[in-house]
Amino acid sequence: MALFTNSITGSAGGGIDGVAGAGGISISGSTRFEDDADFRGAVSIAGNLTVEGTTTTINSTTLNVTSSIILEGTVSPNHEITLTTGDGPSADRTLTLPDATDTLVGKDTTDTLTNKTLTTPKFADAGFIADSNGNEMLRFQQVGSAVNHLDIHNAANNNNPIIEAVGDSTNVGIALKTKAASGVGLFNSNSSYGGAIAYYVANSTTKYAGWMAPADVSLPGSAMAGYNIALPVTTGSTNQVLRVSSSANGNNFLEWADVTAGSLAADDLSAGDAAVNITTDTGNITIDAAANNSDIIFKGTDGGADITMLTLDGSEAGAATFNGVVTADAGVAIDNITIDGTEIDLSSGDLTIDVAGDIFLDAGGGDVEIRDDGTLIGGLVNNSNVFELSGSVAGGGLKLVGPFGADITVDSANDIVLDADGGDVILKDGGTSRATLTIATGSGDFQIGVNTNDKDLTVVGLDNNVAVTALRVDMSDAGTLQVHHDILPMTDNVSNLGSASKRFANVFTGDLHLNNARGNWTLIEESSFLSLRDNNSGRRYKLLMEDITDSGEYGPDNEGNM
User: Integer distance in angstroms from the first to the last C-alpha of the chain?
Assistant: First the structure.
């Protein structure tokens, strides 16, 4: 094997064999390698590269091909397969081959797909699903701005699959449309004509139209193996009705019969031996008591006794009088309610009053009481035109609870009055007492109390939109009063700081300013003496002092010793 590590330039017609160096290899002519060659540097080939071996191994992570890759065929005439990017991608793309031995499927090839899941396949207008021979089995026709479609549901054991009409429209049916004069047939698995329903057109081979009852269904008279009801072979006319045939066709056939207006009077109806149903596919069902001021009366039997269940009074615009309880599970829509009794009772569950506007409680007696199983627990009271919300259970109190995470706002156009006969207004946090506003029952003094040990009483406010604690009473220091700024009297030269009987023990201050109508002086602590400044003249005076430290006659020293 030849090892190439240096820069080698080959000329036309020449070969390269066993040249060592540290550079790359540039081959401008035709060079043939008869043995293995190992190139450690870059290799640049200006001409074509022909590999005659059976295997070409490229030990790199990326193979860049500028235009296309051509795969030569192995069977005459050796057609080629060209891999290309077409018009070129608009961005980097990745094509991942499946981890399997398989054949790729083209857009315009005929292929058999196995184990494929189609999420949202799209069919062109009039596109179809074909059988194995290519014949149409199910064709899809599109409609512009379509909003309704079919859902097909499979089913579990002993359940029916479903074809369902769904979409944006409120009422969506399923239309079955036949070609020319053909009809719609529903068949079972055992008969060419028997299903739940079977319709055949007049020009079909059977000329049959009717309904087929499933086997062994209980029908009037007995359990039968199924029977047909055949429709008339002719078209009826106005005011005709269908009846069981009186001809030789038998009872399985219906025929048209004439019924003129008034030929079947209402008073000709008599009691039957089965349930009576009045139904219509279209239009309304009208019960009309045509006589003036006549009523519509519904009667029945209760415990063997004849009763009037409901009367609709024709002389009172149809006012309804029910003999018993009225149950309306779906709700009642009315204009006004007038109750002759005294209660509205609900046997179970909650009662919801939901209105689009306001709810008015108008109690002529002035009180709206709230009870729990008959026990009065509170109420809304009109006390001399003062609205009161009261709790009525002894020892229970009244609690106003706001929604989670929200505040309770008491907003009054006038005053807000807190009237506590016990004398205390207690402020709590999560059920824990924090502070108390107290009116002493004996003296009438007003007290503000902090109910948590060693917690301060503070006055907080805003100064130029900056929060400041203006005053603090330090309860952990026996009520020491701390102020944030100046202490000023309300009126000049009127108020005292202390009194003759209530003196401060010590006054700790900086300079002491003395000012009245006669003079204006400042007592100043110098480093070794005291001085007085006359603030009116600006003159300063030194106080002459005598050292009496050791005499023990003039009060305590700095350590409190006499």
Answer: 115
